[in-house]
Design goal:
Number of helices: 32
Pfam families: WD40
Keywords: Repeat, WD repeat
Largest sheet: 4 strands, antiparallel
Strand content: 25-35%
Shape: globular
Protein name: WD repeat-containing protein 17
Radius of gyration: 33 Å
Number of strands: 58
Length: about 1300
């Protein structure tokens, strides 16, 4: 299993180069980045679209995508690599591909043939490929030999064989079976008689007509054309000459209506074919549109079908009734979703009917990201530099864009933050030299042009002297200058200089990497242009150089020869050569805490982790879909890594698994000497030691404290030190609140995260009052939100807090009297209450959020919470639920329990209100958990004092170190059992890395520690003397004494104790006969339960593998594997591990057939049990048919057999942190279900077979043996 875990992903933006780059089908939509296709799918439980998969196989820019209209699971794509690929989306794999002679620029599906993809290149011909039959290419007889390049083509969706082409000269070509072909007709009038071009930017057939075609040209605008008569029915008038249309789309649910996206500004316009001017202008973004696709809104669970469906026989040219006006004097838009992509890479899904974004990622890089750097004084901010000419700053806690550099600088190769708290970034470009961007001022404040017109490949701000900046470029110079532009040194090289790096130990020393294959070191005070040192050894150009931050005089270089050399400046020598990359090396990064750890990125798409002491590659990461360029380390969380690539993604990784012993040493209260040391000790030792500034500062801070505060503070500080910033700080603050921490000690960021319920309304009310202060100001200022927007936001906060009167006053201030009068009687009028209830029900049927104020004003909090939850607004639902608990939301006829803003004290809330609050917190937690964020899920539970559920989420998310830390710090005694479970699983990690004594230390602090110590010692593979020492530390007898005790217990008919001592003895295989006979005897009874056999079966699972695989144990091994799989399936049912229940039953069936064990279990029994379990799933009832009733009856028997396991963790599948994130190229299929693995894969003992990490963890919790049936144990922890 990989030692590097992906914890966050920033997808690439939608490319602006080609036209057909977004599409939708059913409950999915897709867009194309430069090298990958991103698929989003609707999660019906939470009513939101989530990233489902990243499809990446094209080696060059993707030129078009198209969904199969007959099969929503099939998508086609074309690329500049001359490939056409057909994808199966659910299976996340390429079904077939074909290579063409030239680059296809448009693709579509032929509806007159099954499984037939058509595509076109240049001036034709139109190619058709029936991938389903395995045939080759055929060509359209008439659609060829065009006089102008083809921009797009569209098959008619109803009239088979009819199609239209749009050309770069602005003309159309039309083909209709049985009629004469029309080539290059209907050019815009302004182009007639000229050679000028006005390319067709989009085409769309009228969904209700066989003749009408909507056409847009880049400059001329939009026309509706009758393709039979070759006449123009309507020319649509854009608001101004500056407006341009790049994309058009009919609205399927509204006949005669279509949308256009303005390519100059982000305005989406709605049109009716009966009017030449738009009927609605919707401003969505400042940046212009690139592509647009509209699809009908999928009916939501429990909702009626779309009431605005069109009737048969209506044409888009029919005069339709204009949409009704809403209460806000705007047109009520038809229900539909619009996939919107923008020129800055932004992607969104806009809900027309609700006038809001369902999903929006406002920005994204659309080309190669060459560099990334963390901000020194605010390390949760990360800057990226791209081929697309922009520098963007991201908040990695939620992966949102914070800043974007002004203008287009051409290609930006490298960036560097100013040292300290100076909020500036320096960048190097391909055509405009280097620059300094002042983020506070929002502009470029300095340019450096000394390299002339040559590319500047690298820029480095001196970390020890903020006045110095170095640049190097294609002109062969490395230039050292002051920030004001004064040149200090200009070092001439014999060829282009690609990289430079300041020494972190000496502010006057800098190293460079040159095209002449050498590394040079310069010392500024010498005032000489000659280098102090020249290091030669690479066989190709040197691209990057990096000084070690922990070992003075050590630096590394990466080259196009695929190698990395480690140089010792003091010895004038290369002390190691790292081989492994199959292509040029680009990214280089030293660990800031482990002196021998080096990370590299390459054109071979991989990230490699190296131990430079012996040159070993510790791990290889394959998730990027193209060349890896930039690598950066989080300044205060040294094991959080950022990487960027030609695949245009930014990925965040956790390197914590590389140093797991350190985390466990801290939990086990080991001395500082086993945690923090010097670079020399760490380099020469076996176990890792922390040697960086951050860890030493933490130690200095902790050494001032005394127990018991010391241990708790140590766990908190080092937990944040090792974990990703997305939620860990929030979690610890909530733990502090539960433990009684005073509010004054909470950080300033506390209110930005998930707050404890007792703080929720207070902080939100304060925020609302702050927004109200805008009434006192004269101007909002440039770029600030409008006063009206701020007042409306304040009003919305107040109404959600139950402050009805304040809401009305603010609505009056805004001039919205109708809303104010409608809500005002909510204090006492019964009739108004009934009327408002009916009105709210009506609005909710339309999924109109105007229902919320009426629900709250009438005290219908439960209705409001349910509505917000159904709309996916889980945090708002949480806020309303808490306001109800505090008595701020009541029916008008019921006196208020207490002042609305009094959040402390007051009456005890009733059980219904408490239940509503807790259910809302559970729903929000489930949303985070299913998205692979168990830490934030735990925060939701802690916000309502559900400590057990919080611990369960951490355990189910495999955040074991954090779970143990939280469990030990929480003063709530109810989490003791869960802390023990987390410790038990954490000990399995100790087994993986051979830290047996450390495991003993961890287990000694748990309840029932002997049971866990027995299992630990039994699984230890070492010499007898070493095992006896381990027994002694664990408080257990020696192996020989255990053998004698087992033989004594054998005669006393105590099978469980007998098995326990046998597995601890020198002859553990003797436990098999005793244990298996006991289990089989129990199972032969007419009524037996899992609890009767599971304890002994668990003990047998800890017999050492080499003993179990001996030939003399083959019979026992087969019986043990089959019983473990079957009983494991029953336990999985009880624990809710639904994804592995069927694989466990099928694995049992395989073992029954292949091993033919002598056990009281048959395939018929498996069939009965499996059918009984399936009878509880709605989707399986139809497949069971007439056996459904008997299966339900057998399920009762099955539940009796499973019983209630004393397992404190909540039911449900495990979702390991980060496992919901798709990979570009690291693709593996699960041996359990044959599906593509999402996220991290766990490899089994053969090194090839894989399962998802979440499935592997659940499997190992109920069945210790591998799914490959070899007898090997599985340990994915």
């Amino acid at each position: 299993m990989s030692k590097v875990r992906q914890v966050a992903l920033l997808p690439a933006g939608c490319q602006p180069w080609n036209t057909d780059v977004c599409d939708a089908s059913g409950e999915r939509f897709a867009y194309s980045a430069t090298l990958a296709i991103y698929i989003y799918q609707l999660d019906r439980k939470f009513n939101e679209f989530k990233l489902h998969s990243v499809m990446s196989e094209h080696k060059k820019t993707i030129t078009a995508i198209s969904w199969n209209p007959r099969n929503p699971d099939i998508l086609a794509s074309t690329g500049a690599d001359n490939q056409v690929i057909v994808w199966n989306i659910p299976q996340q794999r390429a079904l077939d591909k074909i290579t063409t002679k030239t680059t296809p620029n448009s693709v579509g599906w032929c509806l007159h043939e099954r499984d037939c993809v058509s595509f076109v290149c240049g001036r034709g011909p139109l190619c058709m490929w029936n991938y389903g039959t395995g045939g080759g290419l055929t060509f359209h007889k008439e659609a060829q030999n065009f006089l102008s390049d083809i921009c797009q083509f569209r098959w008619h969706h109803k009239k088979l064989g009819k199609l239209a082409f749009g050309h770069t000269d602005g003309s159309l070509s039309l083909f209709n079976p049985g009629q004469k072909s029309q080539k290059h007709v209907l050019r815009p009038e302004t182009l007639e008689g000229t050679d000028e071009e006005d390319p067709v930017s989009d085409l769309d057939w009228d969904p209700l007509s066989s003749e009408y075609l909507l056409v847009s040209n880049t400059h001329f605008g939009v026309r509706l054309i009758d393709t039979d008569s070759l006449s123009i029915i309507m020319c649509f008038q854009l608001p101004s000459a500056a407006a341009q249309v790049h994309s058009i789309a009919w609205i399927p649910s509204a006949p005669g209506m279509f949308l256009t996206g303005d390519s100059h500004v982000g305005v989406m316009r709605m049109w009716n074919v009966s009017k030449a001017s738009p009927i609605e202008n919707i401003k969505l973004k400042k940046m212009g549109f690139h592509a647009l696709h509209v699809f009908s809104t999928a009916p939501q669970p429990g909702n009626n079908n779309n009431k605005m469906a069109t009737s048969q026989g209506v044409s888009s040219t029919s005069y339709t009734i204009a949409p009704t006006m809403s209460q806000t004097n705007r047109f009520a838009l038809p229900p539909a979703h619009a996939v919107c992509t923008f020129l800055d890479g932004g992607v969104g899904l806009y809900d027309l009917g609700k006038r809001k974004w369902n999903f929006l990622r406002s920005e994204g890089h659309v080309e190669t990201i060459f560099d990334c750097k963390f901000k020194p004084d605010n390390p949760d901010l990360l800057a990226t530099a791209s081929f697309d000419g922009t520098v963007k700053v991201w908040d990695i806690t939620d992966m949102t864009a914070v800043e974007t550099s002004p203008g287009n600088e051409g290609v930006i190769y490298s960036i560097t933050w100013a040292p300290g708290d100076i909020n500036c970034i320096a960048g190097s470009t391909s055509r405009q030299g280097a620059f300094i961007w002042d983020i506070d001022k929002g502009k470029i404040v300095k340019r450096f042009t000394e390299h002339g017109k040559h590319s500047v490949y690298s820029v480095a701000w001196c970390p020890k002297d903020s006045r110095r900046i170095a640049t190097c470029g294609a002109d062969g110079h490395c230039i050292i200058r002051q920030v004001d532009g004064k040149i200090l040194q200009k070092y001439k090289h014999p060829a282009a200089v690609f990289g430079c790096d300041w020494s972190p130990h000496n502010k006057d020393m800098i190293a460079t990497g040159c095209e002449d294959k050498t590394v040079r070191v310069y010392y500024l005070p010498t005032n000489s242009e000659q280098p102090l040192k020249i290091f030669a050894g690479h066989s190709a150009k040197v691209f990057h150089v990096r000084w070690s931050p922990l070992r003075e005089g050590i630096l590394c270089s990466g080259s196009d020869d695929g190698g990395i050399r480690i140089w010792d400046y003091t010895q004038d020598a290369c002390i190691n050569f790292l081989e492994g990359h199959k292509a040029p090396v680009r990214g280089l990064l030293w660990s800031s805490e482990i002196p021998y750890l080096l990370i590299s990125g390459s054109w071979d798409y991989t990230i490699r982790i190296w131990d430079i002491r012996d040159g070993a590659c510790i791990d290889t990461v394959l998730d990027h879909g193209a060349d890896v360029y930039g690598l950066a380390c989080h300044p205060s969380r040294p094991f959080i890594l950022a990487s960027c690539s030609r695949d245009s993604t930014l990925r965040i990784w956790s390197l914590t698994p590389l140093v797991e012993p350190l985390q466990m040493n801290i939990l086990a209260k080991r001395p500082w000497s086993e945690i923090i040391g010097t670079a020399e000790n760490a380099t020469s030792g076996v176990s890792p030691l922390l040697t960086g500034k951050v860890s030493k500062d933490l130690r200095a801070q902790l050494e001032k404290l005394q127990e018991p505060e010391l241990y708790c503070k140590t766990l908190k500080l080092f937990s944040n030190f090792f974990t990703h910033p997305g939620g860990s700080q929030n979690l610890w603050e909530l733990v502090g609140v539960i433990n009684g921490k005073a509010d004054c000690y909470l950080s300033s960021n506390y209110s930005k995260g998930i707050m404890h319920s007792k703080h929720l309304t207070k902080y939100k009310a304060s925020a609302a009052q702050e927004l109200e202060m805008v009434k006192m100001s004269r101007s909002s200022g440039i770029g600030a939100p409008k006063k009206e927007d701020q007042l409306r936001e304040a009003a919305n906060m107040h109404i959600r807090l139950g402050n009805i009167q304040r809401y009305c006053e603010l609505m009056v201030d805004l001039g919205e009297w109708e809303r104010a009068m409608a809500v005002a009687p909510g204090v006492s009028l019964d009739y108004w209450k009934s009327l408002a209830d009916r009105h709210a029900d009506f609005l909710m049927e339309q999924e109109n959020e105007l229902a919320i104020p009426f629900c709250i004003a009438t005290g219908s909090a439960k209705k409001c919470v349910d509505f917000l939850t159904s709309q996916g607004h889980l945090q708002e639902a949480m806020l309303v639920a808490e306001a109800t608990i505090e008595g701020s939301i009541n029916p008008p006829s019921k006196p208020s329990k207490k002042p609305p803003l009094n959040c402390n004290g007051g009456e005890t809330p009733n059980e219904d209100d408490l239940s509503m609050l807790h259910n809302t917190a559970d729903t929000l937690a489930d949303w985070y958990f299913r998205n692979g964020s168990p830490i934030l899920a735990a925060c939701c539970h802690l916000s309502v004092d559900h400590c057990q559920k919080a611990m369960s989420k951490l355990i189910r998310g495999n955040e074991l170190e954090l779970a143990v830390s939280i469990g030990r710090v929480l003063k709530n005694q109810d989490v003791g059992a869960l802390t023990n479970v987390a410790t038990e699983y954490l000990v399995r990690r100790c087994e993986n890395i051979g830290k047996w004594e450390l495991a003993v230390d961890l287990l000694k602090d748990t309840d029932d520690s002997e049971r866990h110590l027995v299992r630990l010692c039994a699984s230890c593979a070492a010499s007898q003397s070493e095992i006896d020492d381990l027994h002694s530390k664990a408080g257990l007898p020696s192996m020989q004494k255990c053998l004698k005790k087992a033989e004594t217990l054998l005669s006393q008919s105590s099978p469980e104790d007998c098995v326990k001592y046998y597995i601890l003895s020198t002859q553990p295989e003797k436990a098999l006969d005793v244990g298996l006979e006991h289990i089989k005897g129990q199972m032969q009874r007419s009524v037996w339960k899992v609890a009767d056999v599971y304890p002994v079966l668990q003990l047998l699972g800890y017999i050492m593998t080499e003993k179990l695989q001996q030939q003399k144990c083959a019979k026992y091994c087969g019986e043990l594997l089959a019983l473990s799989a079957y009983v494991g399936a029953l336990v999985a049912i009880g624990r809710g591990y639904d994804t592995i229940v069927v694989p466990l039953f099928e694995h049992t069936r395989y073992l029954l057939k292949s091993r033919q064990p002598n056990i009281p279990l048959s395939e018929q029994q498996l069939d009965l049990d499996l059918a009984a379990w399936r009878s509880q799933g709605e989707q399986d009832r139809d497949t069971l048919g007439t056996t459904y009733g008997s299966a339900c009856e057998h399920y009762k028997v099955l539940r009796e057999r499973i019983g209630v396991e004393p397992y404190p963790v909540e039911r449900g599948v495990d979702v390991a942190a980060g496992s919901a994130m798709p990979s570009h190229s690291d693709v593996h299929m699960s041996v359990l279900n044959g599906r593509r693995i999402q996220g991290l894969a766990f490899f089994l003992e053969d090194g090839r077979s894989a399962v998802s990490i979440s499935d592997a963890i659940m499997w190992s919790k109920v069945n210790p043996f591998s799914p490959l049936a070899t007898g090997a144990r599985i340990n994915p922890f």
